[in-house]
Amino acid sequence: MNSTSYTGVRPLTPAPLMAIADGFRVAKVLAVALEFDLFTQVSGTDGITPAELAGREGLQERPARLLLTACASLGLLDKREGRYVNSELAEEFLVRGKRYFFGDLVTFTDRREYDAWGKLADAVRGNRPVTWDPDTAETLFDPADEQMADLFPKALHAGAVFTARAMALSLDFHPYRTLLDVGGGLGSFCGELCRHYPHLRATVYDLPFVVGMAEKQLAQTPVADRVDAIGGDFFAEDLPRGYDAILLTNVLHDWDADRCATLLAKCHAALGSGGTVIVGEAFLDDEGTGPVAGAVAGLNMLVETADGANRSRAEYTAMLTAAGFTDIRRAGFVMDAPLANGALLARKA
Ligand SMILES: C[S@@+](CC[C@H](N)C(=O)[O-])C[C@H]1O[C@@H](n2cnc3c(N)ncnc32)[C@H](O)[C@@H]1O
Questions:
Q1: Pick the catalytic residue: 157, 174, 196, 253?
Q2: Ligand 1 center to residue 48 CA distance, Å?
Q3: What is the DSSP letter of 284?
Q4: Ligand 1 pocket mutation pick from 207, 213, 237, 247 by most atoms within 8 angstroms of CB
Q5: 279 strand-pairing partners
Q6: What integer pLDDT is reported at residue 146 of this predicted model?
Q7: Domain O-methyltransferase dimerisation: where (predicted)?
Q8: Which of 189, 184, 115 is nearest to 147 (CA)?
Q9: Interatomic CA distance for residues 181 and 193, integer angstroms
Q10: Which domains occur in the chain, in start order?
């Protein structure tokens, strides 16, 4: 036996490889628990036992027990006096109807990306998406694709609304009276930022089929009177003018460098002198070694987009400079957020 194992030198073990290799199992535990609506059902009760879950769902007790145990092992459930109750994490983010309900993102990832990632090798070999065919469709954002028309905007909202909270708490929006959120999805950022900044007015700009959904989502928020929505195509049209700031979160990563340059030039043209563009992304580090969330999301751009990629702050800084922006600042977030890890702010001189 190698004595170094017991003298403070950590032995090399394949355990980290196991955690990587079975990552898909962990993803499925969460998705299946949500499929049974477990966390919403357990919320506000004194918990559930395997026998009760089995009875409610018409299952055998063995799978019910194994599922509840796996959920507890992942920190989704706690066990109190023999009964499984929601953990703090599950109660806050996995109960339907809560402001930061995250379940729609989990469901989208499970229904669309789980199978798609089974074809990751094809995407890597072919340098093309596997969820749609760029030879027959013009863009990923196709309302004829049922998952993109319905599940995707809801999933984005589920991830974006807390990411917007992190942005609201990390950046100071007091200097801006008006904000245009380009590719703003269901208005998650506009809604959340306006809730944090009562002086702010915001406009979502997105494809017409998304804007229809954004209007419905925003109508349910207490800031509906300060957020509106404009439908359009940012490649076919100029962007609306007259805003103090333009927000681009998780939009540039969908496109290649030329399209990013086009979009940033349109932002520059739409802003007045002194206007600010804010780019929020899951940035890579400048060395190109991580972090995991951004790097793996980058591979998802390969699976889902024709030529998108996650990029570093340095790469976006170069793009912003080329588009004519100055005073480029990096801002981190005060808390981890699901869809972005910071922002770049840049000014039009
Ligand atoms: C990855 S999502 C990001 C949404 C939102 N900013 C967020 O962070 O959650 C990209 C958004 O760009 C929108 N989009 C794609 N192509 C567009 C176009 N040509 N014109 C306007 N919006 C577009 C999509 O509909 C989608 O809402």
A1: 253
A2: 40
A3: B
A4: 207
A5: 248, 344
A6: 84
A7: 19-95
A8: 115
A9: 11
A10: 3-93 (1.10.10.10), 103-348 (3.40.50.150)
156 within ligand 1 shell (Cβ under 6 A): yes
Residue nearest to atom 19 of ligand 1 (CA): 233
pLDDT digits (tens, 9 = 90+) for 231-287: 999 999 999 999 999 999 999 999 999 999 999 999 999 999 999 999 999 999 999
Residue 154 neighbours by CB under 8 Å, 6+ apart? 104, 108, 186
Report the predicted TM-score, pTM, of the whole model to 2 decimal places: 0.95
* Cβ of 185 below 6 Å from ligand 1: yes
Residue 240: predicted pLDDT: 98
pLDDT, tens digit (0-9, with 9 covering 90-100), for 30-60: 999 999 999 999 999 999 999 999 999 999 9
Instruction: From 82, 97, 3, 108, select the one nearest 43 (Cα to Cα).
Output: 97
Q: How distant is the alpha carbon of residue 73 from its chain centre?
A: 25
Q: Residue 239 is encoded by which pair of tokens? A: 């962007």
**157 C-alpha vs ligand 1 centroid, how far in Å?**
11
State the maximum Cα–Cα separation within the chain, in Å, rounded to a whole number: 72
**Across-strand partners of 276?**
245, 347
State the complex-level ipTM. Answer: 0.99
Active site residue 268: no
How do residues 158-205 score in pLDDT, each as one tens digit? 999 999 999 999 999 999 999 999 999 999 999 999 999 999 999 999
Question: How large is the average pLDDT for residues 287-303?
Answer: 96
Beta-strand pair 201-206/178-182: parallel
Protein residue with its CA nearest to atom 18 in ligand 1: 233
Please indicate whether residue 141, judged by its CB atom, sits closer than 6 Å to ligand 1: yes
Please name which of 345, 281, 338 lies closest in space to residue 311, comparing C-alpha atoms.
Answer: 281
**Is the beta carbon of 188 within 6 A of some atom in ligand 1?**
yes
